[in-house]
Amino acid sequence: MSDPYSLRLATGISGLDDMLRGGFLPRTANLIEGAPGTGKTTLGMQFIHHGITAQGEAGLILTFEEFPDQYYRDALGFGWDFQRYEKENRLRVVMTSPEVTLNDFQRLGGILEAHASQIGAHRILIDSISHFERISSDPVMLRTLVYQFINALKRLGLTAVLTRENPALLGETPEDEEDLAFIADSYLMLRYVEIESTLAKAVLVLKQRGSNHARDIRQYQIGPMGIVVQEPFEGAQGVMSGSPVMSMRDAFQKAFFAPKRRPLEK
Amino acid sequence: MGSNREELSAQLMDDIDPELLEFIQLRVNTFIKWDLVQFFHRNPHTTDLPNQIAQYIGRDPRIVGPELKALATSGVLHEEELQGMRIYTLTPDDDMRERIARFMQACEDRQFRLKAIYHVIKGLH
User: Fold this and answer.
1) Which chain A residue has the Cα nearest residue B57?
2) Quick one: closest CA in A to B87, which residue?
3) Which fold has domain B2-124?
4) Closest by alpha carbon to B44, among A255, A240, A118?
5) Which CATH number fits domain A4-190+203-214: 3.30.70.1650, 3.40.50.300, 3.30.450.20, 1.10.15.40?
6) Does A67 contact B83 at a Cβ distance shorter than 8 Å?
């Protein structure tokens, strides 16, 4: 029996790959949702970078807003030379709009399909799927369009990371935002969490279709080499609400067993 | 006296690579086209609608549309119809891409830029 991990497309983020039991499944659409600055694009770029450098898998970045220069610069900050990968035909950063993307994928031999086949892309970062909302304000229509788009990516044999912005800095996703999560094969939430007056970041794998995954909420940091996922939050409840509180057990321990401050000397 | 000075400056301005001069006169003969050529050179994998491209370069879409069309006619861009929409990409033609790259590289030199600006303005009148 083959190792199930060998079938996965690792993100290169060690803690996250553990949570995903090795990485994303091939030909899947994986939604990364979070507030501005939580590292959605960084996570997507790391997934692309890891594919190129560690797996020999070429990658596409489809951007609907940011200029390619921005990706080159941000990636270089982590030591990833995206401009070189482009010259070597291992990466392509394509700037376009959702309207063009949807129509282009529907036809035979479209421009975007040509980009994918020219470099033999396996991975794609869509940054961000939120821009599809400008095509239609009708949630049913939007869901249909995204569903069609995701299927087109799978048809091309691509494993996709789709980023989506959540306007809420802290707390839960509004209910109407949940709809697209049903279409995606996996759903990762990135959140800001306030702990003792400091802002930390938390990641949760909410679902992964066809695979087991970690259920705990883990802290992560964006360091000089990219995202590093750490240990699960311990002793806290309501982490994804943005303002966790200590569990009864930990509150009790802190109150009764924490080192006591020495009384002020007279 | 004045006409001599004009002749001299015209001679100085004409001291430019003939191929690049032709490229300016026939293709990049407006400042909007110049912006567009620069944009597509820097972002060669862009495929988009005129309105979007106008936003990318921060110009009025009503002006950008005809300029994109003119660049497509002169072979700098590739125009396609997609479900009733006009979309533009950089030409796949290697020779043209090389000429664009040469022009953009030459633009890094201030003296060349001044000469190019002179020829664009001259062509506008």
Assistant:
1) A67
2) A100
3) Arc Repressor Mutant, subunit A (1.10.10)
4) A118
5) 3.40.50.300
6) no
